[in-house]
Amino acid sequence: MKMTLSNFLSIGSIVVLFGYIFYNEMKIHRVAENSISDNGVYEAPLEMSDERLPAVSFDVPKDITFAGEPVPLNIPDVYERLDKELQINCYLHSNTIFLIKRANRWLPQMQAILEKHGIPQDFKYLPLIESNLLNVVSPRDAVGYWQILKTSGKELDLEITDEVDERYDPLKATEAACKYLKKAYQKFGSWTMVAASYNRGMGGMQRAMEDQSEKSYYDLYLNDETSRYVFRILAIKEISEHPLRYGFRIDPAHLYSQEPLKYVEVTESIKDLVTFARAQGTNYKLLKRHNPWLREDRLTVRRGERYRIALPV
Predict the structure, then answer these.
(1) Model-level pTM?
(2) Is residue 91 located within the same domain as residue 236?
(3) Cα separation, 291 vs 259, whole angstroms
(4) Shared-domain flag, residues 112 and 225
(5) In this structure, are residues 87 and 213 in contact, taking their beta carbons and an 8 Å threshold?
(6) Which residues are paired to 66 by β-bridges?
(7) How confident is the model at residue 71 (pLDDT cuts 50, 70, 90)?
(8) Where does the chain cross the membrane (predicted)?
(9) Which in 5, 111, 129, 260 has the greatest CB count within 10 A?
């Protein structure tokens, strides 16, 4: 067969490609080999270099609790479920970084509300996994940081109309969630079961307990989402409380801070929120930023009602 110039270049390209792959594989092998301890366990170098390191498997903590209740890591599947969620969140780099940044703004405010209602502080991590601390709407139309359904929101005394939807207010939604959590604890007597019920519902968890003659979340066979739910909370809790342990080096100056606000009490209808914002020395964008519960460009105030509108200082 006659060797053409194009054939020659194609063969040359393949040789170069395989040479490049072999070179990089050897580099990775040398880096990994130099990082093996005497007991054969991989240890990541203390300082990063320009070498491309292989992915690292992070340690699962020996002991961990949720709301003061021990997690039985001696059960193999419990250990592996926590291990899975830890590794997933460790490698969701940008998502986890932004979670930690937003948490600095919102968690102190939520902690105060949880404390007021006697709810364990670990529940502050629920909205992190529910919504990434964003006012999102789920495919099932659950809304806001705490992902509250319309029917549930009304049962928890949130106002939900075309103009006002308090599920979008992170702090009022936290108050509503506390009502649910207290009621669920009265039913189950276990904070871990309370957390699982926030995902599946009290009725769903009760049926699972009755059908399987089990009382512990860790002993129940559940749908995939609920089976992962508490472990997702535990993973975010662990990474948030020990970020350096899991490779997250975040400059404190990069964290998002609580923004200074003032409040205006409104007792009369506002026909145009754009004009209202301008009159208050701000603009419509910032008005909506700090009051996402305002769903239209107007606000109807019925007799005897009043609203507090947050405005930037």
Answers:
(1) 0.82
(2) yes
(3) 13
(4) yes
(5) no
(6) 69
(7) very high
(8) 6-23
(9) 129
